[in-house]
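Here's my example:
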Amino acid sequence: MPICLFEDFSISTLLPLTHVNPDFDLRSGVFTLRERVHQYFENEELELFTRMALAEAIAERSGHPVNRQGTADLFIGGSTILRPALVHAIREHRGEDRLFASGRRLLAATVATASLREKLFSWLKTGLIREELAHRPHSHPDILEFDVPVTEVDASAFRFPWDLISWNSVLLKEDASFFPLGSVDERAQVAASAELVAPENIFIGADVRVGPGCVIDATDGPVIIESGAVIMPQALIMGPVAVGRDSRIKAAAKIYEGTTVGPVCKVGGEVEESIFHSFSNKQHDGFVGHSYLAPWTNLGADTNTSDLKNNYSPIRATLEGREHDTGRMFLGTILADHSKCGINTMFNTGTVAGVGCNIFGGDFPPKFLPSFSWGGAAGLTEYEFDRFASTASAVMQRRDRILTEAERRLLRDVFVQTSAQRDFAP
């Protein structure tokens, strides 16, 4: 029977990353949750349940049924951190009516009866409609109302964007179990002068090229380099690190622990404890630390992110106009889909930029840049939608991708929904 991945009710606190992505398609570790479910539950069919505004685009991207009230016997929340202990508990009770929770927060459910399945679908439809209309988090259900056994599990869920960064090293190490560590595919090309340190913790996939003078050090955690990736000469990679398929690590780059470079990215300079989701570029020198870069983002040459305050105090960050105490000493920049910055951009600690921003100019831009902002420290104006869409389309075509009408409508919806945030003073 199928597995239903459903958007959790943390989607509002995960904004701006969830404007155009369901929470289960955010990346932490090697995989997104949707990809991780495929690893733990091989060959099982997936059904997806999302906000209505995302349904058409997500069906197009994923090829899975979306918002179909099907026959799933396992439901998994989109922000759930799927780890071995939770997977074991699910497998142990598959075929029963049972909820899996942490601190009364619903993470997953196994389903045996039509009545529980109907209750779950009803709850999802009602909750996601409320979330979509209000654009603010809603309380989780009283799980006792489902009137089925509840198993408390030692598990958690992503609530804020910085949680994805906090968990990245842990999940990189756990996700490494799905790769044959200690192996180099026979079709890979590793230069004779490249040095593999702790090779038993390294996986190098098919058609990977590792250039002369590279050092890949897996002493403190695994290094996974997936098929088609290129590690250019004299690059340094210190695990735990993942480099996704067809990505390119530029010459003399320094990629430190806790970093995920997703599929089809180009990354250079100095990077630490950061996540490049996919189709993201940082080709040149500059430091990026404790940051999250969503798909189709680009950092200009010599862009630098501050990730530590001078007084070492906890960093505050603003999400959709609401300020939060992150409780973190280290936090760089959160950059949502299709946002870009020009050369020599300086981002302050805890900077958050929404969807479709074009950031440029001297000095530090504001720490919160609403979606479709144009400018920087000297002032912000609205990035006119048709101009944005023309650029986004051109960028995607360079990677053999198309800005489809469904994607364009979704981005246009975000443009309209966030318009009140762009009340820039003259």
User: Anything to note?
Assistant: The first helix runs from residue 33 to 40. The mean pLDDT is 94. The chain has two domains: 3-159, 181-422. Residues 184 and 204 are 5 Å apart (CA to CA).
